[in-house]
Amino acid sequence: MKKKYIxxxxxxxxxxxxxxxxxxxxxxxxxxxxxxSEIFCTLFEVESINDTTVNNYCVGCRGxxxxxxxxxxxxxxxxxxxxxxxxxxxxxxLNIMDGVVxxxxxxxxxxxxxxxxxxxxKKLYNIAKNDKDVNQDLVFxxxxxxxxxxxxxxxxxxxxxxxxxxxxxxxxxxxxxEVIETILSDxxxxxxxxxxxxxxxxxxxxxxxxxxxxxxxxxxxxxxxEMGENEYYGYYKGIPRYNIAFEYLKKAADMNHATANxxxxxxYINGIIGTLDNKELEKGYEYLKKAYSLGNIAACNSIGxxxxxxxxxxxxxxxxxxxxxxxxxxxxxxxxLNNLGKIEEDNKNYEAAFEYFLKSANLGESWACNKVGEYxxxxxxKKDMKEAYxxxxxxxxxxxxxxxxxxYYNLAKYFYMNGYEEIEKDEIKAVxxxxxxxxxxILEANIELLYFxxxxxxETQNSGYYNKIIKLQKLIELHDxxxxxxxxxxxENIKRINKPELNIMDIVKNIKLKNxx
Length: 517
Prior knowledge:
This protein has helices spanning 17-27, 36-44, 51-59, 66-81, 87-98, 107-112, 115-130, 136-147, 151-165, 172-184, 191-203, 208-217, 221-233, 242-254, 258-269, 278-293, 297-309, 318-329, 334-346, 350-362, 366-378, 385-394, 406-416, 427-439, 443-460, 463-477, 484-497, 504-509. The protein is mostly helical.
């Protein structure tokens, strides 16, 4: 059976010659002049080349020949002595893209300020982040050049990988095998164990849990991890059984299952198992370090938290915390982006904080969605109620374990309760959302419901509303965050909607502070 190769000119997963040529053509003002052969000759400074050869290089069914690689390597040697070595090549590519013949003495400066060059370097950088063959050191190096607005040198790094380092052709069967080998390379887990587990996941029916448990008992790392995770979250018995979870996770961790190591580390650090003494905190840290070394990004964030809070055996070190947060955020770990945002916010660097929160929100992280909504609603950077509404709603699209219920509260209070511009007033939805957030012990939601039912009682004198007011009064006074300041604010707000003959203030005055006789 003939091998199926992966095309390298129609996706954003491979930093390849084909995708470079595709981007140049897409960005060119005159598409007909951006022919593959012309781009190739411009890049390698040759007079002509067979169209079929170039097409084979671009599609990825042939590797770039050593002849052309050597041309580029020779230029790299000269580049080390003369930084301008690639300037003419890049400017000639810009001539193709912009449909203009550029002549300039300040070549590198021109490239760094050319819109097409800037766009091309950034698009190639985004592909580099997706390409599994590109190591993180190169990704960071290109990113540093882009941050310094040195797009010329960023392009050279990208071209170097495309021409010299990128392996092609890539066959689908080889890639699958390589992916599995890479995943398992640092573990003692066999590929047959992975195959056995996947067969169970994809084919088993009603006996799945029974079969999974048997597989775990026979030493399958993935089955042990899933059993441990399900016991941790209480999916089997309705309550977490941490000791049982630990036993399963420990077996998977011993076989270098990355996330199992992370979960055990967190269990020690958070005191879910053990007594938080120094020896057990040290154990937790070792598990987190091992998880991180195996590629678990959550562990990188947790180590950052340990540095931020000075958890034994680490000393409090904000610089180290930020370093770990940035390592995780570079791989789009939302909670690290949130942590960096909080640090910037604490330092009153609101624009920088907002950028971190926005990136996290765009990854779907619910708390960050609410935070971005608050920034837009209150106008910390720019007031935009439509965007606030959009991000609060985006924050609802999250699992029950990760959702931030303040999104419900803010939508209810600032949009549905009274309506806002094109958002129609919808008291039923507002009350529904306030009840959802109230059920998650959000004090502000209880207070907003109190105001709502007071208004309804004033309008109707319905005893049902009165009973709801009494119930909310008790919920508010028992809330952990309730204090004298909030009590006074409630009284002041109710004065504005009160009718003296209904004695609403008598109800509110009965709301007592904790420990107050």
